[in-house]
Amino acid sequence: MRPGRLALDSASAWTAAGYSDARLLGAVDRALRRLEGRTGLIFPRVPSADSAATLVVRADGPGMAVQGVEEDESYALDVSERQVVLHAPTVVGVIRGLETLLQLVDADRAGWYLPLATVRDRPRFAWRGLLIDAARHFEPVPVIERNLDAMAAVKLNVIHWHLSDDQGFRVESRRYPKLQQLGSDGRFYTQDELRAVVAYARDRGIRVVPEFDMPGHAQSWFVGYPQYASAPGPFTVAREFGVHDAVFDPTREETYRFIDGFVAEMAGIFPDAYWHVGGDENNGKEWSANPKIQAFIARRGLKGNAALQAYFNQRLLAILTRHGKRMVGWDEILHPDLPKTIVIQSWRGVASLAAAARQGYSGILSSGYYLDAMSTAADLYRVDPRPDSLGLAADEAARVLGGEACMWGEAVGPETIDSRIWPRTAAVAERLWSPRSVTDPDELYRRLAVVSAQLEELGVTTDDHTIRMLRRVAPGLDPAALQTLLAVASPVSLGGRRFTSPAMQFIPLTTISEAAVPDPPAAREVAAEVRNLLADAPRYGAYRESLARTFGAWRDAAPDLAALAERSPLVADALPVARDLADLGTAGLEALAYLSAGTAAPPAWTADRAALLARAAQPKANLRLVVLPALKDLITAAGSPRP
Amino acid sequence: MRPGRLALDSASAWTAAGYSDARLLGAVDRALRRLEGRTGLIFPRVPSADSAATLVVRADGPGMAVQGVEEDESYALDVSERQVVLHAPTVVGVIRGLETLLQLVDADRAGWYLPLATVRDRPRFAWRGLLIDAARHFEPVPVIERNLDAMAAVKLNVIHWHLSDDQGFRVESRRYPKLQQLGSDGRFYTQDELRAVVAYARDRGIRVVPEFDMPGHAQSWFVGYPQYASAPGPFTVAREFGVHDAVFDPTREETYRFIDGFVAEMAGIFPDAYWHVGGDENNGKEWSANPKIQAFIARRGLKGNAALQAYFNQRLLAILTRHGKRMVGWDEILHPDLPKTIVIQSWRGVASLAAAARQGYSGILSSGYYLDAMSTAADLYRVDPRPDSLGLAADEAARVLGGEACMWGEAVGPETIDSRIWPRTAAVAERLWSPRSVTDPDELYRRLAVVSAQLEELGVTTDDHTIRMLRRVAPGLDPAALQTLLAVASPVSLGGRRFTSPAMQFIPLTTISEAAVPDPPAAREVAAEVRNLLADAPRYGAYRESLARTFGAWRDAAPDLAALAERSPLVADALPVARDLADLGTAGLEALAYLSAGTAAPPAWTADRAALLARAAQPKANLRLVVLPALKDLITAAGSPRP
After folding, report:
1. Which candidate in B145, B281, B415, B456 is catalytic?
2. Does B498 touch chain A (CB under 8 A)?
3. Using CA of residue A454, residue A456, residue A461, residue A467, what is the dihedral sign?
4. Which end of chain B is less packed: N or C, by CB atoms within 10 Å?
């Protein structure tokens, strides 16, 4: 970037100077309409023939007919005082460059402008994905579409759509209609909707990789077609989450004919070269309990259930190959009997991925990118699919194709999913696009706040999630005390979540925990203020008043919430967390007093506060207070002898 | 209602004790899922066979095959300690009763419950509608669906869907595909979508009355089919709002064959007995300018253009009758040549409606219910389709079928439309359902706040509109000062709106004015506080501090907004309003000081403040300050001599 500006106004015309098609024109149109929404300006609906137009878009060609891993996504952006030229070898490159262009737009009193800049950009990894699990809870098309918009805004290029699992079968099959009729509770995507989503994604330079998990995670298939299961049935749609026993019977030829028919049907809907078979968490119980299956294993000389799954995968691979698809699957599909053309998606970790790469398998990383772990954006940002420490040779390194953030669906629904995906997934997106050397977390958070606000223009819910959900959870009640609480509380991870009923899928996602967000910005501010205060020894003046206000608000929220709880049992659930926070607020105020007074707190005080920290570290109401390390530092400092 | 409660918990079963069908079961299911979202409880997915279930739903029958004006919507609800029984003659009655049931649910520390109550309920008017104009700005299906949910929540029963106008033709015609191909900018409802909306509405007890405005307001038809216009063409989609000249040629038989083909196609999609022909605002210019048309008038001995429109309407009526439809149209279609079976929708007023009723015509009122006038809920609530003052005989009175709130689309889009419809339309809905005697505005506002919060559970945006839009308009900027401003500012009425470009349809709906809401609650509070303060003479102590805080915030918002404006030209647009508000704040503080001191303000001060009030009454940036009457009272009191 360099000094100077290109002013934008309603006279700013644009032109398509190179290759042009409906996808390119649509992308420019959407970008200009978004820019209109931000600026209040009106830009032309149609391209100008004038090469002196303010925005010149020049594509060399269309790119791949079906976007693939090999697609060239590079672009060049040159902003001069006269015009901005966006040049890319493909339409997808143009789509990427338009997002950068929108990020560059700025304003001051004199109006809207682009700063003068020269950008040469291309992604570090070719596979930059987001998994959305629409099986555990269904996510209607508008939810998928707005998340595709947000993905495109941060240059992600794969949606990995988890479309079937024990708890639901989510696509319409005309060949096997009992799949959705009996396996979905009526919540599934019609084939028209699937095609529309594929087209919507393609328009945004995003590949759609469908996942139909098998042989396990397949209970919902068997509600309509029990004959392909390894146990006699009948089956119902699972409501409990976790690993279930239901598994395809890999010993019967009918199973493969059924799968072949299904893949043939879906291959006409999903054009992507890849097909995700799942393959994870088959506990083998039904196989072990079925004498016919065990006899098959013995007859074939297979080495137990794992070898049987490899046999199943080989058969599955043949089916996929026949329909022009390459296989992707979770770690468990990796088996020496399978060829190097398969792609391993690792939930186990980079070491597992590196081992696969050394054996010649391509892979993508998801370990560390599980959004339902509710970790911070900085934590996600630290995870690198190909850290130097792996010591891979160049050809091995090239097999690490990228990564995918994973939004598993057990504890999210249409009203909450955005807030769990965004803005944190923007951190993953940058990790996968930008050079390995870009790692500063403070700089990440500065830019993440900007991106988060911009994502809302696409209809996803980011920063306003908490207040919106509080209006939903406690309509008509003053949300101030709840906001104070949720400013420093995160939902617990999926693993730590307590489900209040075995009918887990039916539990309403409208509790106080659902209104919380992972990595709340205010908690980071408290931690930063504590760091600054402690660095200001022996005065301890920095941010003292601000912290005192915060701690006072924590203390005062508890009685306010107790009053609200009289009118709302849902608020009542959160009272134990409010009590912890109130005690932490009081402890914080006391610690500030000791530090100001220059006298160390007595050991009994410190010990009591340590017990408080331990108690507060226990999640309650599926909420986790995320300010405990800062409070611990403050309490420790208050109890330490002064010079 | 009477003392006592029926506790609700996850053990609460329900049963369908009478007639049952998919529509009834679906309605109960949706109601229970909404109740789950509010309560965190889990209710059964399937009805119990046990007549002792907590909720007993008993319908006597399905009601009309196609819901009509004659549908019986009554229901009875009896909540005892043992169970709640909802009994209705029709499924639509059940749907109405379920909404009342949801409104009755309450909670305290002991949990969720229904208060004991006996309800016997039926609507005062049979036609209770909401017009949504999807022509001037397109409203995608999800917008329509969430508004249908909200309509059902307040027991409205007609969506009047304005589907074509000069600025857009919004439905897919397979017979005449150039209608949508050339007349919609690609923004139209597919036939599948139209059918889905009709089914969605029917499930909620709502009729869908389509409006295809003709002979005027028809420019978008002629982009694809200029041969049916009265001027030679070619035509483009209109971008400017207001009355256009384009009008069907009523003298050619081809015109009627074309309309007949179109009605035949659409009659298969819209099952309602009524069809809205529009008929308004034909300026007759193209007719007057076309010698062939004038010759036709002369040949037939018609009395000018008005008679020609009546001729057109007679031909149109014959077409509609052939396709089993009854005609509805705006005031202008009323003509002695048309039979009494037509229904007049009045934008002119109750007197016009009463005159029609005396002539034997049925009618519905929309005058006074125009939501784009941005009047208050209390104003809308005061409008009665059949006030006593009309002096209608019983048979005449019966011809007043009801009313429709109208959401014209010139200045709303998907992001803003909800906030212009809701919660105010709930006031219209109550006027049309409840007894004429229910008129207390304070009681209206008390309940409106509750309803407004509950509507958000259906996905419509009500109370959080301003903050959400401010995040959109000024992303990343502190919204506090803007919120202070918009708490007492309303968008101007459609008639008062200044459009910044002749390409009106393209003007982005993301200005500060778009973030404002009509009838902001905070403005009512200021007015109430001023009333209380003035009633507390000569002490003037009531609400003094609160008002001083408010006035101080008005004064302080201006410099804050000036600072924001340095970073946002959109905020800069609102600075003149901020300056007015700051001056009003200062004036308010001074007035409080005079009142406290017990000395009258000098006449020069009062005169200056009157000039300020006059200046502030001029809308700026499409915003109108709605606290001026209260400020005027305060200033007048400050300048009045004391005893």
Report:
1. B281
2. no
3. positive
4. C
